Amino acid sequence: MPFSIDCHGKTTREINRLLRQAIADGHTEFQVLEPDARHNLAVALLRPVRVIFEGSVGYYCGGMMDGGILEIRGSAGWGTAESMMNGTVVIDGNAGSGVAASIRGGTVVVRGDAAARAGVSMKGGTLLIGGNSGYMTGFMMQKGRIIICGDSGEALADSMYEGVVFVGGKIAALGNDAVIDEPTKEDRASLQELFATYRMQAPAAFKKIVSGRKLWNFDKKELEIWKAAL
Amino acid sequence: MCGIIGFLDKRGRPDAPVGQTLLAMLQALSCRGPDSAGVAVIGTALPGWALNVKLPERVPCEKAAAAILEALKEIALVTRHEILGAYLRLEMERTVEATELEKHLLAGVPGVEVVSLGHQLSVFKQVGSPAQLEQVYHVAAMTGSHGIGHTRLSTESRVDLSHSQPFWAHGVPDLATVHNGHITNYHKLRRHYEQRGYRFYTENDSEIIGVYLRDRMKTGLSLADALRSSLDDFDGSFSYLAAAGDCLAYVKDRFGFKPLVVAETDDFVAIATEEIALRQALGRDFLAREPAPGSIAVWSVVPAPSRAA
After folding, report:
1. pLDDT tens profile B23-76
2. Fewer CB within a 10 Å sphere, N or C end of chain B?
3. Which residue of B has its CA nearest to A112?
4. pLDDT at B221 over 80
5. Hey, what domains does chain B have and what are their CATH numbers?
6. Could you tell me if A33 and A51 are in contact, meaning their C-beta atoms sit under 8 angstroms apart?
7. Residue B132 scores a pLDDT above 90
8. What whole-number distance in Å separates Cα of residue B89 and Cα of residue B50?
C-alpha cells in the first residue's frame, strides 16, 4: 500500500514535510491526492522513491530531484523537474513553459504538449514529448537529448552547444546554428527502446537536429557571425 | 506578478452563477496580487445604460450621489440608483451617447470616475484581497454569461481603486480588460494617443490596452483583429484578457513571458494565470493547456437556447 497524502486543506510546506517525514520513516511508495496544481511539490527529493500525483501539479514539481520517480496524472506548470540531477518524471497531460530546464540527468516524459522553452539549457538526460513543443525548445542545450513526436515551435534548439533533438512532425523554424543531421542506426535503436519503455507510439520518421558548432568560436571581426549570434 | 482570470459559461445562460466561479478563481490567485482585487461581469443586457461610478473621496456618499443625480438630470432619465461601497450604481435611459454621458458627468461633479459603462458590464474593484471584495460587493452572488478578474501586485503605479483592474475601455460600452505584465512602450503609446485627444485616467500602463483597442476598433477593425494587432504594437510582457458584451478573449505576448493556462469543456471556457485557479474553482475533470506565445483566442457567447427548441 502506498503512503497516501491528501492535499486538501494543506499548504505546500505541510505536504512536502509530510513527504519528507514519511521518506525518513522508510516509506518508498506515495500517492498524493488532490494536488490541485499547487506549486513546488516534491522538490529536492534525494531518495529513490515513487510518488504518484493524482491530478495536476503547479510550478517546479520535482525540481532539483535526484533519483526519484514522479508520475503526474494531470498537467504540470512552469519549470517542472527543473535542474533535476537524476530520476524520472512522467506527465500524463501537458507541461507548462520550461519543462526539464537545466536537467543534468534522468528522464522527463510529457505525454501531451510542452509549452515554450522546453528543455532549455539541458546538461544531460532525456526529454520525451509525445505531442507538440513550444518555441525555443532546447535553447542553449549542452548535452542530452530531446525527442518531440509532434511539431516543434520556432527557434528550435537555438544556440545549442551539444546534445541532440529529434522531431517527428514539422519544425516551424530552426534556431541559430541548429542543423539537420541524418539519424544513425544507433539513434533509431535507442529511440525504439525509449518508446517501448514508456509505451508510447513512435512517429514514422524523425528529423535529427544537432549543433552546427559555428557559435563555438567566432571571429569578432566577422560581422555576419555577429548578426547571426545576436 | 498579478493574477488574471476569465470564465465563460457555454450553456447559453445570460444569468449563470459566474460570480461564484470568478471569486473562487480570484481567491486562488490572491497571493499573486495582494494589493487589490476586482471583477468585470457581463450580465443580462439592459435596455438602457448601466454605470458604476466611483464616488468622490472626502465627500459624504449621500451628498455625492445627490450631486451626480442632479448633474445627470439634464441629459437622461435615471431609472435606478444605489450606493454600493465606494460606487454609485446607476441605470439610465439610453437617450445619450456613452462618451457624451461620461464627459457630462465628469464635468458636472468633481472627483467622480466612471469605472464601467455599458448595457451588460459591471466592474467592481478595490484595494485589498478578493475576500474583502466579496465582503463589500458580494461577487459570489453576481450572475452573467462571462467575466474577468484581477489580483494586483503593483510595481509601477499607485495602489488605489482607480489604478486597480479590470479597466473599462472608456468610450467602448461593455469592453473591459485585465492585464498581467508590463507594456514597456506605454509612455510612447500614451503620448501618441494623448496627442490624438484620448484621455487617460490613471498612471497604470495596463490602461493603454483599452485605449488602444478603442482606437483600433474606431478605424474599423473587429475586436479580434484589434487584439491580434496588439501583438505587434505592444512591447514588453503581457498576458491579457478582454471581456466584451458578446465574447471573452486572451492575448499572450510573442515571448510567452507571462504565464496563462486555458481549459475548455462543453460547458465552459476558463482562463487563468495559474492552473491552481482552475482546479480550486472548477475541479479536476478537464485538462489545462498553456497557449502558445504570440497567440490570441476569442470565444463568443453562446446564444440562449430558444424556448421552442
Report:
1. 999 999 999 999 999 999 999 999 999 999 999 998 999 999 999 999 999 899
2. C
3. B289
4. yes
5. 3-45+120-300 (3.60.20.10)
6. no
7. yes
8. 7
B31 touches chain A (CB under 8 A): no
> Average pLDDT in the B86-91 region?
97
Closest residue to B276, CB basis, from A36, A116, A117:
A36
Do the Cβ atoms of B276 and A37 come within 8 Å? yes
Instruction: Answer yes or no: do A77 and B274 touch at CB < 8 A.
Output: yes
Long-range Cβ contacts of A146-155 (<8 Å, 24+ apart): A146/A118, A146/A119, A146/A122, A147/A191, A147/A194, A147/A206, A148/A114, A149/A200, A149/A201, A149/A202, A149/A203, A150/A113, A153/A116, A153/B292
Residues B290, A93: C-beta atoms closer than 8 Å: no
What pLDDT sits at residue A229? 63
CA distance B138 to A203: 53
Q: What is the distance in angstroms between the Cα of B259 and the nearest Cα belonging to chain A?
A: 8
**Angle ∠(B37,B43,B46) on CA atoms, nearest 5:** 130
Distance from CA of B25 to the nearest CA of A (A): 12
Confidence category of residue B309, pLDDT binned at 50, 70, 90:
very low
Question: Which value does ipTM take for this structure?
Answer: 0.88
Residues from A in contact with B at Cβ < 8 Å: 34, 36-39, 55-56, 58-59, 74-75, 77-78, 93-94, 96-97, 112-113, 115-117, 134-135, 153
Q: C-alpha distances in angstroms, A68 versus A13, A29, A107?
A: 19, 10, 11
B308 pLDDT exceeds 50?
Answer: no
- E strands, chain B, where? 3-9, 36-42, 49-54, 78-84, 87-92, 113-118, 121-127, 146-152, 167-168, 176-183, 236-244, 247-252, 261-264, 268-272, 296-300
Task: Compare CB distances from A38 to B259, B261, B276 and report the shortest one's residue.
Answer: B276
Residue B275 touches partner A, C-beta closer than 8 Å:
yes
Polymer length in residues for chain A: 230
Provide the edge-to-edge strand list for the sheet that holds A207-211. A3-6, A29-33, A50-54, A66-72, A86-91, A107-110, A123-129, A143-148, A164-167, A207-211, A178-181
Instruction: Note whether A209 and A164 are within 8 A (CB).
Output: yes
Query: Grid coordinates in use for A195?
Result: 518508446
Question: pTM of this prediction?
Answer: 0.93
Please answer yes or no on whether B287 and A93 come within 8 Å at the CB atom: yes
Q: Do B288 and A39 touch (CB under 8 A)?
A: no
The answer to whether the CB atoms of A116 and B293 lie below 8 A apart is: yes
Q: pLDDT value at position B304?
A: 65
Residue B268 has a pLDDT of 97
In angstroms, the separation between the Cα of residue A189 and the nearest Cα of chain B is 32
